[in-house]
Amino acid sequence: MDAQLADVEAGKRFYGELFGWTFEEALGSSVWALLDDEPVASLAPKVDGRMPTVWTVSFATPDAAALGRRIAEAGGQVVMAPFPVGDLGTAALAADPQGAVFGLWQAGSHPGFGRRHEPNTFVWVELYTRDTAAANTFYGALFHEALFGAGAEPDFGRADVADVFPVEMPPHFVTHFRVADLDDAVGAVQRLGGRVQVPPFETSYGRVAVVTDNQGASFAVLQR
Question: Where in the numbering of this chain does the VOC domain appear (predicted)?
Answer without folding.
Answer: 1-107
